[in-house]
Amino acid sequence: MKWALIAGLAAALAANAARAEVTDRSAAGFEVVEKATIAASQSKVWDALMRPSRWWSSQHSWSGDAKNLTIDGSGCFCETLPRGAVRHLTIVYADGKSQLRMAGALGPLQFTGATGHLGIALKPAGAGTDVVMSYDVGGYAKGGLAETFAAPVDKVLGEQLLRLKKYLETGKAD
Fold first, then answer.
1. Among 35, 111, 121, 167, who pairs with 173 as Cys (CB 3.0-4.6 Å)?
2. CA angle 51-48-53, nearest 5°?
3. What would the CATH number be for the domain defined by 19-170?
4. What is the tens place of the pLDDT at every residue in 72-97?
5. 133, 124 in Cβ contact below 8 A?
6. Domain ranges of the chain
7. What radius of gyration, in Å, describes the C-alpha atoms of the chain?
């Protein structure tokens, strides 16, 4: 009985966690893939995706405050700074319900000759939504792109997907 309870709890926790992985790496770059099932409708997940200030971590912003993050009408995933701005990514495709694709270099990748493609796919999963986030990064970075950046990028994007999930399921990302 005790083992069944422990196994059930472990299965429940695993079902609620995001799955993250560096799926490919080479001298030219890397790919990370994050996956989660969110207990919210596809339209609610889409709406939240388009409002990163509500769920993105302030720790992973240039200004130190996620409230400065927006996705505006021009397709800019941008951040307002006290004396300037940051263009993190640019939307290259958005269908308004299931596919969001953005191009650019996140975080410290902006200091390199690298760029990336962030794709987010939403798919109904019963009453919830399966979310797959993949970020393909290529280019030049001193010391090696995959060696230096793959694991940290995987960690940060995994954290953001968990924050999105928590925000949609509890109303709070923290």
1. 167
2. 30
3. 3.30.530.20
4. 989 999 999 999 999 999 999 999 99
5. no
6. 19-170
7. 17
